[in-house]
């Protein structure tokens, strides 16, 4: 029998998680088992999409009878699933690969493979560089892993970085390794056609394509059967999800997909990420409002509060458009949590234009935001056509200002929860104490509260909020 994989808390879409991932990457924890001939160790960096891809890779490897280990010294093959979004994300992987070089010296049979965005961006350059790796596998080539592993095992350098217009891994059942058994990610589309000028994703993940809705619904249904209580539908731009059934001519858009998933089970929470301000429709908002189990939370990256910068970024909306979208969200769902991504110091951004970002933040008061200093990525439209002319010091200073303001707003938003009673899905024990549970509200706020007998992970409870900091809420379970 295949051993049960070690359970580990996995909180989707939280700031802490995102920062933690960027800092150190996360290895999948698992146990070897009797059937497995060989062991794989997979380390994942970057966004939730990469974590979801690692589950596809694990599925392909399972088919090959690989087991999984969290001890890299026991692994026959080590995969690093990589991120290219900012320069520091790539630097971390380079350092990691250099440290693995020593390991490889002592163990000549060990295979090391680079997966994901860096594989796609750097291609065979990764093989040439100091002979650090044996396999380079782009995000659309995971079905080819059996051949690539065999080739690398035979002493050849193995590369597949072909991007596909069709691949959605639709029928591959992800192996959920690092799971709490409560929340799971379900990829609904791949790639991105937006071409925001700062972004490397359209080059590393290729053209946008939507996965067959039926296979998404089937996967969510299966998760419900396994006891999962929450799915997060993932895509670079979920609002442009569109699937055409060639045989029947039936088209399914994101609002319709959301509805189909919400209808699977009333106790299944449905979340999604990432929305795009230019594409999110009233239909999506009304569908969210209509179903109690679709969480009232939208991650709506703004990037900048200045219309000239937004134009240079090719975001497809203005400051006013964004503010109107937020107004519309709040008209339809007054209680909706909203978070954003913000970039400081994009090409030619002036102090006044940065102030527009600050004033937009003050107007919206995001519940959270993920904030970044602009990092030029080779071959992106911005790198080709614009000058990265805001000094690192100024980028950092502006970033600091944005972070401080966000902390203030997060705290304000959390303080306003005090006294409210929220429905919370219990996800795990609190990090600080085994006497406490933690879970999230509909609006994606993390709450810590004392345990109550008879309740466990995956149960819902009602929690009265008593205390708040900028990061978490504390409360206690109340009866209905
Ligand atoms: N520099 C800084 N931040 C970036 N992002 C994407 N590309 C860059 C870049 N070159 C940020 C955007 C995006 C998030 C996932 O990462 O804010 O929404
Ligand atoms: Fe990058 Fe823009 Fe696509 Fe997001 S929407 S992945 S920022 S190109």
Structure, described:
This protein is an alpha/beta fold. It folds into 4 domains: 5-160, Methylthiotransferase, N-terminal domain (Rossmann fold), CATH 3.40.50.12160; 181-299, Transcription Regulator spoIIAA (2-Layer Sandwich); 301-316 and 326-415, Transcription Regulator spoIIAA (2-Layer Sandwich), CATH 3.30.750.200; 421-478, OB fold (Dihydrolipoamide Acetyltransferase, E2P), CATH 2.40.50.140. Helices cover 34% and strands 22% of the residues. The protein has 15 helices and 22 strands. Strands 1, 2, 3, 4, 5, 6 and 7 form a 7-stranded mixed sheet that branches. Helix 2 (48-63) links the parallel strand 2 (38-44) and strand 3 (66-68). The longest helix has 24 residues, at 392-415. The protein starts with 14 loop residues before the first helix and ends with a strand. The structure holds 5'-deoxyadenosine and iron/sulfur cluster (SF4). Iron/sulfur cluster binds at residues 192, 194-196, 199, 201-202, 236-237, 276.
List keywords for this structure.
single chain; 480 residues; alpha/beta; Rossmann fold; Transcription Regulator spoIIAA; 4 domains; five-stranded mixed barrel; 15 helices; globular; disordered N terminus; binds 5'-deoxyadenosine; binds iron/sulfur cluster
């Amino acid at each position: 029998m295949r051993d049960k994989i070690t359970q580990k808390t996995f909180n989707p879409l939280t700031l802490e998680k995102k920062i933690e991932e960027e800092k150190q990457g996360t290895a999948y924890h698992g146990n070897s088992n009797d059937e497995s001939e060989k062991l794989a160790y997979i380390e994942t960096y970057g966004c939730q999409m990469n974590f979801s891809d690692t589950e596809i890779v694990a599925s392909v490897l399972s088919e090959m009878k690989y087991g999984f280990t969290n001890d890299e010294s026991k692994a026959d093959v080590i995969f690093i699933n990589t991120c290219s979004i900012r320069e520091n994300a790539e630097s971390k992987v380079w350092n990691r690969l250099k440290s693995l070089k020593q390991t490889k010296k002592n163990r000549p049979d060990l295979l090391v493979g680079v997966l994901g965005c860096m594989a796609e961006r750097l291609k065979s350059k990764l093989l040439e560089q100091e002979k650090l790796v044996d396999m380079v596998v782009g995000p659309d080539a995971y079905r080819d892993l059996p051949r690539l592993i065999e080739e690398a095992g035979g002493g050849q350098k193995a590369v597949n970085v072909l991007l596909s217009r069709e691949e959605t891994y639709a029928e591959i059942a992800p192996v959920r390794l690092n799971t709490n058994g409560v929340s799971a990610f379900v990829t609904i589309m791949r790639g991105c056609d937006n071409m925001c000028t700062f972004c490397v994703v359209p080059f590393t993940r290729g053209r946008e394509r939507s996965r067959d809705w039926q296979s998404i619904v089937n996967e969510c249904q299966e998760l419900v059967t396994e006891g999962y209580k929450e799915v997060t539908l993932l895509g670079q731009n979920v609002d442009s999800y569109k699937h055409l059934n060639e045989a029947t001519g039936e088209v399914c858009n994101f609002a319709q997909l959301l509805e189909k998933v919400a209808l699977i089970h009333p106790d299944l929470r449905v979340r999604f990420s990432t929305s795009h301000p230019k594409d999110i429709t009233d239909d999506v908002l009304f569908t969210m409002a209509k179903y109690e189990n679709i969480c009232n939370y939208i991650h709506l990256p703004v990037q900048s509060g200045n219309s000239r910068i937004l134009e240079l970024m090719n975001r497809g909306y203005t400051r006013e458009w964004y503010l109107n979208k937020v107004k519309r969200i709040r008209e339809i769902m007054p209680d909706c949590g909203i978070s954003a991504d913000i970039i400081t110091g994009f090409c030619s951004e002036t102090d006044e234009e940065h102030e527009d970002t600050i004033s937009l933040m003050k107007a919206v008061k995001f519940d959270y935001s993920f904030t970044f200093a602009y990092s030029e990525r080779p071959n992106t439209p911005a790198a080709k056509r614009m000058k990265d002319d805001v000094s690192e010091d100024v980028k950092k200073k502006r970033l600091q200002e944005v972070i401080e303001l966000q902390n203030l707003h997060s705290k304000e938003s959390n303080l306003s929860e005090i006294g409210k009673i929220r429905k919370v899905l219990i996800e795990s024990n609190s990090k600080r104490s085994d006497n406490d549970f933690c879970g999230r509200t509909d609006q994606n706020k993390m709450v810590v509260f004392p345990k109550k007998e008879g309740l466990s992970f995956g149960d819902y409870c009602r929690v009265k909020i008593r205390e708040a900091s900028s990061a978490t809420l504390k409360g206690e379970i109340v009866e209905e």
